[in-house]
Amino acid sequence: MTSEDSTSEVVVRLDGVRKEYGDTVALDGVTLEITAGEAVAVMGPSGCGKSTLLNMVAGLDRPTAGSITVNGENLGELNETGLALFRRHRIGMIFQFFNLLDDLPALDNVALAAQLTGVRAGQARRRALELLEELGIADRRNVYPAALSGGERQRVAVARALMNRPALLLADEPTGALDSASGEQVMDLLLDLHQIGQTLLIVTHDPHLATRCASRVVEFADGRVAGERSLERSA
After folding, report:
1. Residues 113-147: b if buried by 16+ CB within 10 A, e if exposed
2. 24 lies in which domain range?
3. Residue 158 lies in a domain
4. How far from chain centre, in Å, is Cα 212?
5. Does the residue 216 lie in any domain?
6. Is residue 21 part of a domain?
7. Tens digit of each residue's pLDDT (9 = 90 or more) over 176-203
8. Cα distance between residue 95 and residue 10, in whole Å
9. Number of domains within the chain
10. pTM for the complete prediction?
């Protein structure tokens, strides 16, 4: 683990998590911890349980057995409304295919994340613009998603994910739909976020992304943690 703080808090804790879909076991007794400031990449072949793990941590699905705690919240104790509030306030999510709203320009796509938590529109738009400036695409703030490049759309999606200052940022194949140049830009962005202390959980099949952006790689196979390794980071 690379966090410099010896008293690092545990942001994510999975304890004996099992998930069954009928006769299929997607997760088979997964125990895993992620501490504040870590960037953890989960890797493995298709069908090994990576996306199921991400959905569990996001509160989008519930385990068959075991417990999941994120930022001090035991997700098993939350009802559906509580889980929705948890997702809005505690986590940010980046998807492979961006999941932007086509009928809103970039700025409003980002600001909406804060407005859904009760932030006034003007305040939300100011923070959204600040994030777009930090990500280098403020000049595209009034452009609709269909007219943005893939890299630009993913930057808008990252800004949206950061809007509510999440304790945890989840990324599901964040470069999977991008060309190599745009993918490199998004990797740079994830690395920058990690270096300023953002806690990240990245699901990917791309070893380059994992070694570039993560401080620890967790290998999955057949719904289990098959191994893990820490990656050295220069200061």
Report:
1. bbbbeebeeeebbebbbebbeebebbebbebbbee
2. 10-99+167-230
3. no
4. 16
5. yes
6. yes
7. 888 888 888 888 888 888 888 999 999 9
8. 24
9. 1
10. 0.87
